[in-house]
Amino acid sequence: MLDYVGGEARRRLRDFEAHIQAAYPLFIGFPGSVDFSYQELYPLFNYLLNNVGDPYIEPLHALHSAPMEREVVEFFADMFRAPKDDRWGYVTSGGTEGNLYSLYVARELMPKAVVLYSDAAHYSIPKATYLLRQKTRVVRTRKTGEMNYADLTKKMAAHAGKQVIVVATIGTTMTEAKDNVTTIRDAGRKAGVSGMYIHSDAALAGIPTALLEPRWPFDFADGADSISISGHKFIGSPMPCGVVIVRGHNRELVRRPAEYTGSPDITITGSRNGHAPIFLWYAIQRWGIEGFRGRAQRSLELAAYAHAELQRIGWPAWRNPNTLTVMLASPARELIYKWQLATYEGWSHLICMPGVTRERVDAFIADLTKQP
Ligand SMILES: *Cc1c(COP(=O)(O)O)cnc(C)c1O
């Protein structure tokens, strides 16, 4: 055993691990898969890996995982049907960075365009538009959390003859509702806008949505110009990460010279996590498309089961079609904390991410039935 730190520090570490371990089985209210195992990668933590710059142009130093990062980007570019000859992307620090990057590219393309997003969009969207000093309009949603397209059309019509940027949320934070990119395109035509950039914020549900039938329109073939996903949600990874894919030629809008690193400054941050791409690469090797599809199907089945169980005990509950998220009337405070349930305006949700088991759902239902 190494003795870099003393017994007290070591005890702190053990206590901390025990604390996380205890919370793990009760993690059903936030979207992170916890069924991963990356033990084979542990030796790599003995090395610095810095993927600074463009993953397609390797930096001068050797301590990077750019080849694996490119494979990860290509895998998701294929999944999201990005044009073979016009695609680019990188592994981000999470869904937020992918949203910021996409809106940065969109602003460079359409500097004066208003950004429209729904009131159920993730908080990273208004943050990004604030940082980028973009004008914004918030579009109303239906009860399900999906965009109200009549309101979208009306708000776009105020910009007839001009370019607009629209953020489609593919899996809203509370209800996992999806905005329809085909309908958004049609609304733009109806409203008479002169050009549109559509960003799909698919942080939560991009992967299951791409793999499950019936297909929901949200990807490049459906008319999106960029897509951002989180890596620590459906896939699962020990550290937050994500992937952003854009139409290849658009990245030129934000390219800055390489300076001394040997690779252009074309991402949001300078130094970038070189381990995260390896985790995603490893998950791709392990699961592949069919493995991911199986994971998504099992999660859907479990969500349907949880919904049915809530109905069986007479607990108010509902669920959008084909989602891993089940909405339920908020239980007592102590259960909200015990089960770490995201809660808003009297409603909570559980998310059947891979790693949530039927036994967990049963234990949760049993707790609800015991509630006075
Ligand atoms: C989680 C999420 C984000 C933010 O992703 P992070 O990885 O937490 O930065 C953005 N949009 C949606 C819809 C999300 O679910």
Write the layout of secondary structure elements.
Blueprint: H1 7-23, H2 66-79, E1 87-92, H3 95-109, E2 114-118, H4 124-131, E3 136-139, H5 149-157, E4 163-169, H6 181-191, E5 195-201, H7 206-211, E6 226-230, E7 242-247, H8 276-312, E8 317-318, E9 325-329, H9 333-338, E10 343-344, E11 347-351, H10 358-370
Bound molecules: pyridoxal-5'-phosphate.
Order of helices and strands: HHEHEHEHEHEHEEHEEHEEH
- The unreliable regions are none
Query: What multimeric state do the chains show?
Result: single chain
Mean pLDDT: 96
Number of strands: 11
Could you tell me the strand content as a percent range? 5-15%
End-to-end C-alpha gap: 50 Å
Helical fraction: 25-40%
Shape: globular
- If helices are DSSP runs of H or I spanning 4 or more residues, what is the number of helices? 10
The strand order across the widest sheet is: 1-7-6-5-4-2-3
> How many strands, what sense, and barrel or not for the largest sheet?
7 strands, mixed
> What class, by secondary structure content?
alpha/beta
* Radius of gyration, taken over Cα atoms and rounded to an integer in Å: 22 Å
Distinct small molecules: pyridoxal-5'-phosphate
Tell me about this structure.
- There is one protein chain.
- 37% of the residues lie in helices and 15% in strands.
- The protein is of the alpha/beta class.
- The strands form 2 sheets. Strands 1-7-6-5-4-2-3 form a 7-stranded mixed sheet, with helices on both faces. A 4-stranded antiparallel sheet has the order 8-9-11-10, with helices on one face.
- The model has no long low-confidence stretch (mean pLDDT 96).
- The structure holds pyridoxal-5'-phosphate.
- Pyridoxal-5'-phosphate (PLP) binds next to α3.
